[in-house]
Design a protein that fits this description.
alpha/beta; TIM Barrel; 2 domains; six-stranded parallel beta sheet; two-stranded parallel sheet; 13 helices; 45% helix; globular
């Protein structure tokens, strides 16, 4: 049993969230960010009943959870569009207090089939950041494919290219192998990454999953992108193949960034001016080189995976976002108000 699966740890965490929620710190933290913009990141929205213990569904909320989360947001925040945020950061126009922007990464078809009706019912705009090389396709992103192979109980050993042997006999061992795989990709060139992936495929058999939830692995088509635009959903770039940009050569990084924009604009006939970095951590995933390439390509905004709130002085090409997943109401509120980060910051200083 891992530390995070320990019942005492789980209960303690639940108690902390409930204490933050009911003790008033969430309300205090929310007021502190009254004039900032809360940007939320979702990935997939599916009906209840998807395999929650499957790593491939780890960034998925069900439709019931998405509804109560949006209802809370609607009651306590003012939803804005990407265009409003862009204008505000440029010094053109004001925003209401407690502004919030809803975003989705990757561009799966469930954003249209399940998320859009819930958003539309509440009159809330959103942004979808699209992996432009996968339009209309049905498959896993490379990192999902690797995790699916490593997490499968069909094999008990993986040997990485550096000769290290990774046992796969338990969920903890498989999770550790997944972590090692991704860290290896962050540390090596694209050529090494391709070789590692080919080796992984040879060693570990896999069968793409989905069952009765195929839209988890189904990407939006060009026609579906246009449908989103017609329904108050803006689009942004998310590269062509979802690589770790910082590990690519300058020419390859430029192609991923430039072609992401041009392909989406060609598919929709609409301008694309915002971008979301795959994985999104400044340093290992992107840096100043990528920001320069975004400027050259004509992007005005770019979003990272760093948690926090957008302020007037935020770097427009490294905007923070707060990720959302399957959580209790208390944890959701503690997270989006910044109360949880406030506690972490306090504990880290003492």
């Amino acid at each position: 049993m891992s530390y995070y699966d320990n019942p005492i740890y789980i209960k303690s965490k639940q108690f902390l969230f409930e204490a933050l929620y009911r003790g008033g710190l969430c309300a205090i933290s929310r007021r502190r960010h009254k004039d900032s913009v809360l940007v939320l990141t979702y990935h997939d929205v599916l009906p209840p009943g998807f395999p929650e213990d499957n790593v491939l569904f780890g960034m998925t909320v069900n439709t019931e959870e998405f509804e109560w989360q949006l209802d809370h947001i609607k009651a306590h925040y003012n939803p804005i569009s990407l265009g409003q945020l862009c204008n505000w950061l440029s010094g053109n126009g004001a925003l209401p207090p407690y502004s919030v922007l809803i975003t989705f990464d990757d561009g799966h078809a469930n954003n249209l089939h399940y998320a859009l009706p819930i958003l539309r019912k509440r009159g809330m705009p959103a942004v979808c950041f699209i992996v432009a090389g996968n339009l209309g396709e049905h498959h896993l992103i490379w990192v999902e494919e690797a995790y699916e192979r490593l997490m499968s109980p069909n094999s008990d050993l993986w040997v990485s290219l550096d000769g290290k042997r990774h046992l796969l006999n338990s969920p903890d061992e498989r999770a550790a192998a997944c972590s090692y795989f991704f860290q290896s990709f962050q540390a090596h060139s694209e050529e090494h990454q391709h070789k590692e992936m080919e080796s992984l495929r040879r060693q570990l058999p896999a069968k793409e999953e989905g069952g009765r939830f195929p839209t988890r692995f189904e990407f939006l088509s060009s026609a579906e992108l246009r449908m989103l635009l017609q329904n108050n959903i803006e689009l942004g770039g998310h590269t062509v193949t979802h690589p770790i940009l910082a590990t690519l050569s300058p020419d390859r990084a430029r192609t991923e960034i430039v072609d992401s924009k041009s392909r989406l604009e060609e598919a929709t006939g609409s301008a694309v001016y915002a971008f979301a970095y795959p994985f999104g951590h400044p340093g290992p995933d992107f840096g100043e080189r990528e920001k320069d390439l975004l400027r050259e390509a004509g992007y005005s905004l770019a979003f990272s995976g760093t948690p926090g709130f957008v302020n007037k002085n935020s770097d427009p090409l490294c905007l923070p976002r707060i990720g959302v997943g399957r959580v209790s109401q208390a944890q959701f509120v503690a997270t989006i108000t910044g109360a949880l980060d406030m506690v972490k910051h306090f504990l880290g200083r003492h």
